TrEMBL record:
This is Uncharacterized protein. Residues 230-247 have a biased composition (Basic and acidic residues). Residues 207-217 have a biased composition (Basic residues). Residues 81-143 form a coiled coil. The keyword Coiled coil applies. It comes from the Eukaryota. Keywords: Coiled coil. Residues 153-255 are annotated as: Disordered.
Length: 680
């Protein structure tokens, strides 16, 4: 691998000997190699320079190191796999044991649920049987009282009474008369009466209606006593009559059936549940000013108790509520708190600390009594007080309102500051303000206690319906003229009677009866109702109104508050929702800004929106818009109940109406806040 190379420089010629490196393929100077001559280099099999030798040595070391690292990595991976396998197996064993435990608990729970359901059904069946047995006992008692009342009275002094049941002539004569007259004994000279006949019994046994026999002149005492006797039993048993006595007296329509007995029992249970409710009002001097109007609104019911004290603090009243045993022994009660102005005025307590203490107490009370509700009144923000008093009251109201919304629907917050008009002197309520707030509190207590709301008389019927009054006057005069034989077209009365109501003249061909005026009034009322409904059908917004409102009648749902005004707009279909405004505003987003879940409609605001308070828990009645005709009917009925509509003769759902008012007020406040937000 050596050779002799000749190099020629620019200035002359020079010769040098080189050796070729087979590894890096470079010619190396002979002096840098271990060879002495070129021939020795040629005789060698191969030549590797020093640099290549170093590189080969490093490569060999690196290969050995990589091999060692690979062996160590394989061992580490094997150890990790074994460890992970053990942990996975242990976790699987724990999961399997937990699954077996849960399965066993589920089976036990299902078994207990089945047992509870069976016990509940048995209890319901027992209650049904008890109710039926109670009705049968009442029927037997009534029949026994009827028979006792129909027995002959005690003979007066000087008159001998024949013994009964010992075979005397009097008993035999009575039995003979009973057998000859079909089993009925009547006094001489008494008019013939047809008593009701027992159905389902054996023999011809009759009873006379429950009337007291009158003694006529010329009849002796024995005849009067015989007239009072209504049943001759003969050979029949007394118990065979008692089971049918009530049915014959009540008639076929009033017979006791298991379904009617169960319905009456459920009504009694609902009435008894409402009778167990109580209302407790704790407050300061302002609460004392609400007492008269609130008690008047509830009809001075004794289940409403006012415990007010002039100058009482909120902490003192909360301590009284916590120590009152009658509150916590009541199954369901509503507790009203109206205080806090004293602490805010004298600065003895900060708004945040007072609200936090009240929150802790309310949380404890909610857990202590599951059937109780609590109402917290806001503090007065208006009046001639200084800013040092108004600002803490405002901060307290904001904190307590937020607290009530977080605690749920069982805690209500009543804002009273908006009712205080101009000229308010100090934090105390004026007389008109106290009356309004007291009436509103009374209506809320009536809704909770199940009491009937007081009827409002806004004015005489002639002022409310002048056209109806004119029409009835004209019809009355026409009827009088017809009764006297005078034609209604005489004396130029045709124009006034026809009038704008388009009532045709009627000429009677039959004599007037006693209830003619009543029937005419009913006919006129039916015509007015039908035309009223026709006028409602012509307006698109009144679709729900004319479908749900059955007759023309005043409603006791409104109390001159913002919630009542919004309720009126919702009932009339003109609530200013985004869906309504989109008809008149182009490119307006109709999605609800609070929940972004559906289109903002009246139904969504009242029943579905999750961003409003109080929350609606009964979502089964609301349904979905994707259901069929039956679902749409349920949707309309649920919305109608929430808006205060009801059937003929049924009371409105006061609690649902109050909840709707509060949701509408909450929606209105959020609308105002969103409107004012960009301006800030």
């Amino acid at each position: 691998m050596g050779r002799k190379a000749d190099r020629k420089a620019g200035s002359g010629s020079s010769s040098q000997e080189w050796v070729f490196c087979v590894s890096c393929e470079v010619w190396v100077d002979l002096e840098c190699t271990p060879f002495e001559t070129v021939e020795e280099a040629r005789a060698a099999p191969a030549f590797t320079c020093r640099q290549c030798e170093k590189i080969d040595t490093v490569k060999a070391e690196m290969a050995a190191l990589v091999k060692q690292q690979a062996d160590d990595s394989k061992l580490l991976i094997a150890n990790l796999e074994a460890r992970f396998e053990r942990e996975i197996n242990a976790y699987r064993s724990e999961c399997e044991a937990l699954r077996v435990t849960l399965q066993k608990e589920r089976e036990d729970k299902e078994g207990s649920t089945t047992e509870c359901e069976a016990l509940r059904q048995a209890l319901q069946q027992e209650e049904k049987l008890r109710e039926i047995l109670r009705d049968e006992i009442a029927a037997l008692r009534l029949a026994f009282e009827e028979m006792t009342a129909c027995r002959p009275a005690a003979a007066p002094s000087g008159t001998a009474e024949a013994p009964r049941g010992d075979g005397t002539a009097s008993h035999e004569d009575g039995a003979a008369n009973a057998s000859s007259s079909g089993g009925t004994v009547k006094a001489a000279g008494e008019p013939e009466k047809t008593p009701p006949t027992h159905r389902g019994g054996t023999g011809n046994v009759r009873t006379k209606p429950k009337t007291r026999a009158k003694r006529r002149p010329g009849t002796n005492c024995a005849q009067a006593q015989t007239a009072k006797s209504d049943v001759v039993r003969g050979g029949h048993e007394e118990t065979s009559l008692q089971g049918r006595e009530e049915q014959d007296l009540a008639g076929p329509k009033d017979q006791v059936t298991p379904g009617a007995a169960l319905k009456r029992h459920l009504e009694k249970l609902g009435a008894s549940a409402q009778q167990d409710r109580r209302a407790f009002v704790y407050g300061d001097g302002n609460a004392a000013r609400l007492k008269r109007a609130a008690l008047k609104a509830v009809g001075w019911n004794k289940r409403v108790m006012f415990r007010v004290k002039e100058g009482a603090s909120l902490q003192e009243l909360c301590s009284s509520v916590d120590l009152a045993e009658d509150i916590w022994q009541t199954p369901a009660a509503i507790v009203v708190l109206h205080a806090g102005s004293l602490e805010m005025s004298d600065g003895s307590s900060a708004p945040e600390s007072s609200a936090s203490q009240l929150r802790a107490l309310l949380t404890k009370w909610l857990q202590k009594a599951q059937g109780h509700r609590f109402v917290v009144y806001a503090l007065t923000e208006r009046g001639s007080g200084s800013e040092t008093h108004i600002n803490p009251c405002r901060e307290w109201n904001v904190a307590v309102r937020k607290m009530c919304e977080e605690l749920g629907p069982r805690v209500e917050f009543v804002g009273a500051s908006w009712r205080l008009g101009h000229g308010q002197q100090g934090p105390s309520y004026r007389d008109d303000t106290a009356d309004q707030l007291g009436q509103r509190l009374g209506r809320r207590l009536c809704a909770f206690l199940g009491l009937r709301m007081p009827t409002r008389h806004w004015g005489p019927p002639s002022q409310s319906h002048p056209a109806a009054g004119t029409l009835m006057t004209a019809l009355g005069q026409a009827i009088i003229q017809m009764a006297e034989g005078q034609h209604p077209h005489e004396n130029g009365r045709r124009r006034s009677q026809g009038g704008p109501h388009r009532v045709e003249a009627i000429r009677l061909t039959a004599p007037l009866q006693r209830d003619t005026r009543k029937r005419v009034r009913e006919s006129v009322s039916a015509v007015e109702t039908e035309r009223w409904r026709e006028s409602g059908r012509a307006k698109r917004a009144l679709t729900l109104y004319w479908e749900a409102k059955t007759d023309i009648a005043k409603e006791a749902l409104y109390d001159n508050s913002r919630g009542s005004g919004l309720l009126c707009e919702a009932r009339s279909g003109v609530l200013r929702t985004r869906s309504l405004r989109a008809r008149y505003t182009a490119e307006l987003d109709t999605m609800c800004p609070l929940c972004q879940g559906a289109e903002e409609t009246i139904r969504h605001i009242v029943l579905e929106c999750t961003g409003l308070r109080p929350a609606i828990h009964d979502a089964q009645d609301s349904g979905t818009s994707a259901q069929g005709a039956t679902g749409a009917t349920n949707d309309s009925s649920a919305l109608a109940r929430a808006l205060g509509f009801r059937g003929s003769g049924e009371p409105p759902s006061w609690e649902a109406v109050e909840a709707t008012k509060r949701r509408l007020e909450c929606w209105w406040r959020k609308q105002v806040e969103q409107t004012r937000a960009p301006r800030r």
